[in-house]
Each structure stands twice: as structure tokens, then as C-alpha cells.
Amino acid sequence: MKILVTGGLGFIGSHTVVELQNEGFEVIVVDNLSNTSLSVLDGIQNITGIVPAFEQLDLRDKQKVSDFFNRHTDIEGVIHFAASKAVGESVGNPLLYYENNINVLVYILQELEKKSASNLIFSSSCTVYGQAETMPITEDSSVQTAMSPYGNTKQIGEEIITDAAKATHINAILLRYFNPIGSHPSAEIGELPLGVPQNLVPFITQTGIGLRQELSVYGNDYPTPDGTAVRDYIHVVDLAKAHVIAMQRLLNKKNVAKVETFNLGTGTGSSVLEVIHAFEKVSGQKLPYKIVARREGDITEAYANTHKANTILGWKAESTLEEAMASAWKWEQKIRS
Fold first, then answer.
1. pLDDT at 196
2. What pLDDT is stored for residue 87 in this prediction?
3. Residue 218 annotated to the active site
4. How far apart (Å, rounded) are the C-alpha atoms in residues 114 and 299?
5. Smallest Cα–Cα separation from 87: which of 302, 303, 297, 301?
6. What's the pLDDT at 147?
7. Buried/exposed code over 299-314 (b: 16+ C-beta within 10 A; e: otherwise)
8. Which residue, 90, 141, 244, 287, is most buried by CB atoms nearer than 10 A?
């Protein structure tokens, strides 16, 4: 079966391509290379022995999206990663986020609407919960007012998919993931942000390798045990495997609703300082960091209740925080060597 992976050379996308190919799927990747590199294809091939089909395409061009689907009529499922994803950047450039994250989704859904069988896995986020009222967060937790334009695009995206599914034969699974980190154990692929990283772990590893002078910790006055913000950090390989299981669920018509939603996390919250200490333990070095003011758009804490994914999907995160940090460090050392 042929699966389209949009943003398939990105961090989570590339790891998902690997897991799809490991399970025997034929994969076609679309990416505009705005935040990744063609070299990721080599990494995927080195792991799986297979080079996925690839087209460089800006999905914001509606006509090119239509032309693509007209050329690839045998696609049986879409895993949609292609989106802008940094909370801080979205606050400063909201219109970019609305164009890239909303328009592209609509164009893809319009093409899926034309097909006889349409299965979509949507890359959503725990940001849809805003600052949840209780921890851990379940799928039934109320969706709060978004704290950033990025979070709002994920909320709106979920609403668009739900409305489209009601009116068409599209079936979808919304995967709300928490904070993906780490890299493939082979160190052939990993997180490869262009420019200054927007996420914590690559900033940690770049600081550890000497590329950055020091890490900025945004706030130490949160109402948490050590004052720093708490998140649920999940190994990217565990996350990628969940996408394959979710796609198999749709293809095998095991879904019990047109749109299903699952949290993907470890179920454990870790503070920024705990992540720093985990890095220091696996790397054997001290990390220079400083406490700075809180960052607009950030919430206090978020970690998942994963019972639904564990029981219904039969999926569970396997890797520890230290294992994830060790793999991220191995990847950083490789790409800087």
C-alpha cells in the first residue's frame, strides 16, 4: 500500500518513513525542504535499504497539490506532518502559520474528498489543551483557548478535519503528541533544525557540542517542583511507531468513529532542569545555562494520560528520558564530526 508522508524529511516525518518502510509500506515523501535537508533521504536508505519516492513541493500551491494527487491516484493513506511548528516563532509571525498550517490542510482534504478511500493521520499537538486544568491530560480534557498561533492552528486543523469527515468519506486519526525528542539509534537521522533551534533538546545538544555559548532556561518561577516548566518528552522512534499503528487501524477499518483522537506521550512530566540533568548524566559534562524571563506562549506544565493509546491502539512509549537524550547526543556528535 502506498502512503503519502507530507513533511516526510522533517524530524518526526523521517522517523515515521523508516517505520512505515520497516512494515512493508511503499512511501512517497513530499517536502519543501524549508526546515530540513535532502541528505535525510540518505539516512533513511542507510537504515532501511530503501529510498522512498520523493518530490520537492510547496503544498501552499493549491494547483501543484492537485497535480500531485492526479499523478498519484494509488495513494491509500496520508500522514500529514508538513507544518510550521515553533510556538515562539508563531507569536511573531502568525500569518505565516495560518497560511502554512491551515491552507495546506484544506488543500489536502479537498484532494482526499475526491478519492474513493481516504485515510488521514493528522499531526496534532498537546498545545490544543492550552494550560489544562488537571494533570495528566486525557483526550476528554477541554480544549482551552490557545496560548499561541501555532496552538490555534492545531485546534482549527482538528475542527476542519472533523467537519470534513462528517460531510465526506474521509476517516482520520488525530494524534496529539507531547514533546518529541531523540533520534534513531543508528544516528542516521535525527532532529536537524535550520538556524537557531526552537526546541529545548537540540538547543541543549548544540550547547553541549559548543555550537551555542549557553542555554537559556525560560523562567524558574513556575509553580512546579523546581520552578521550571514541565513537559512530557517522548522518544521520536516511539512516536513514529504510533503513526504506523494508527494508519494500519484505518486501513484495516478498525476505527470505531470517523475521527478518533489519541494522546501520545510517556505519561511522565519532566522539568527543563530535569532534562538538562539527564543530558549531563549521559554526556558526562556540565551544561552552561542561564535563567531568563518566561517566553510568551509557554504554559506551566503538560503531560499525558496515555491509557487510551495504550489500550485501544496497543501502543506504549518504551524509551526513557535518558535513552532519548543519549540518542540525541549521539546524533549531535555525528553531524558535527
1. 85
2. 81
3. no
4. 40
5. 297
6. 82
7. bebbbbbbebbeeebe
8. 90
Are the C-beta atoms of residues 119 and 250 closer than 8 Å to each other? Answer: yes
Closest CA to 135 of 268, 319, 308: 268
The whole-angstrom separation of Cα 247 and Cα 80 is 11
pLDDT at res. 136: 97
- Which grid coordinates are listed for 22? 520497516
- Which of the residues 150, 177, 222, 303 is marked catalytic? 150
Low-confidence ranges of the chain (pLDDT < 50): none
pTM of the full predicted structure?
Answer: 0.96
Find all residues with CB under 8 Å of 137, minimum gap 6, and list them: 126, 129, 263, 302, 303, 304, 305
3-state secondary structure 51-103: CCEEEECCCCCHHHHHHHHHHCCCEEEEEECCCCCCHHHHHHCHHHHHHHHHH
Parallel/antiparallel/unpaired status of strands 75-80 and 118-125 = parallel
Q: Residue 322's CB: how many other CB atoms inside 10 A? A: 13
pLDDT for res 101 = 98
Alpha carbon distance 170, 271 (integer Å)? 39
> Which pLDDT value is given to residue 307?
98
Cell matching residue 268: 511522565
Contacts of 271 (CB under 8 A, 6+ apart): 224, 225, 226, 228, 229, 230
- pLDDT recorded at residue 148: 87
Which amino acid is located at 105 in the chain?
Answer: L
What pLDDT is stored for residue 146 in this prediction?
86
Could you give phi then psi for residue 309, rounded to 5 degrees? Answer: -65, -40
